[in-house]
Design a protein that fits this description.
- This protein has 230 residues and is of the alpha/beta class.
- It has a single domain, classed as P-loop containing nucleotide triphosphate hydrolases (Rossmann fold).
- It is built from seven helices and ten strands.
- The strands form two sheets. A six-stranded mixed β-sheet has the order 6-7-8-3-9-10, sandwiched between helices. A four-stranded antiparallel β-sheet has the order 2-1-4-5, covered by helices on one side.
- A hairpin with a 2-residue loop joins β9 and β10.
- α3 runs parallel beside α5, α4 packs across α5 and α5 runs parallel beside α6.
- The longest helix has 16 residues.
- The chain is globular and about 45 Å long.
Length: 230
């Protein structure tokens, strides 16, 4: 599903974010990506949804070398990728239903299909009773669930969650990880970028440690991996 082959990313400022990274993530896996601040985690995920291009090497997602996708085709490619951000990025003047529906409207999904998909996704994330609420009326955990619903309503092949529990209390964080686990069981490949040691320890999945732009540990047994602070 995801393959990086000798990927290096150097920004115009001269900062080398990734260095000769090699990595394979199979279809249907659930993977944690951990590492210190500035290690290259953000660059890694930006490469996966083509916000950035590698300086050298290949990034293959859903059997496509995405560095070769023309810019005008990127929105079509991104239909395969759902992304959940730490700060939710919900539209404040739209209801929960409208926020989720928006992800389908931009790809011209028929109205009847939008309603069916949004309602079934709201049920999956446990927010059937919040369809008409606005983001400011929700708790942080509920807003994160809406963000996840919006990311998965189009049934993407890959879901990337960037610090999905970063602003949440431990009990709410547990619920979010259990929801992502359910999404994974339905067939979506899930990547969770996190600093949440307790979550990684409690819900053991394959864990990849990135340090200084390289994969320095990759354990299928899961569990938190300590890194060396520079």
């Amino acid at each position: 599903m995801i393959k990086l082959i000798g990927v290096t990313k150097v920004y115009k400022t001269g900062v080398k974010a990734l260095s000769e990274m090699n990595l394979t993530i199979d279809e249907g896996e659930f993977v944690y990506v951990i590492g210190p601040t500035g290690a290259g985690k953000s660059t890694f995920i930006k490469l996966l949804y083509r916000e950035e291009k590698p300086t050298s090497g290949k990034v293959i997602v859903a059997n496509r070398d995405i560095s070769k996708i023309k810019n005008r085709k990127v929105p079509y490619f991104r239909r395969n990728i759902g992304v959940v951000f730490q700060n939710y990025r919900l539209l404040p003047k739209k209801t929960v239903f409208e926020n989720i529906a928006f992800a389908l409207e931009v790809i011209d999904t028929p109205r009847k299909e939008i309603r069916r998909k949004v309602l079934s996704t709201l049920e999956l994330v446990g927010l059937e009773d919040k369809a008409n609420a606005f983001p400011h009326q929700l708790s942080g955990g509920q807003q994160q669930r809406v963000a996840i619903a919006r990311a998965i309503v189009n049934r993407p092949k890959v879901l990337i969650a960037d610090e999905p529990t970063g602003n949440l209390d431990p009990e709410t964080s547990k619920g979010i990880i259990e929801l992502l686990d359910e999404v994974n069981r339905l067939g979506t490949t899930v990547l969770v970028v996190t600093h949440d040691r307790d979550i990684v320890q409690s819900y053991r999945k394959r864990t990849i440690l990135i340090e200084n732009g390289c994969v320095t540990s990759d354990t299928s047994a899961g569990g938190y991996v300590s890194w060396h602070e520079s």
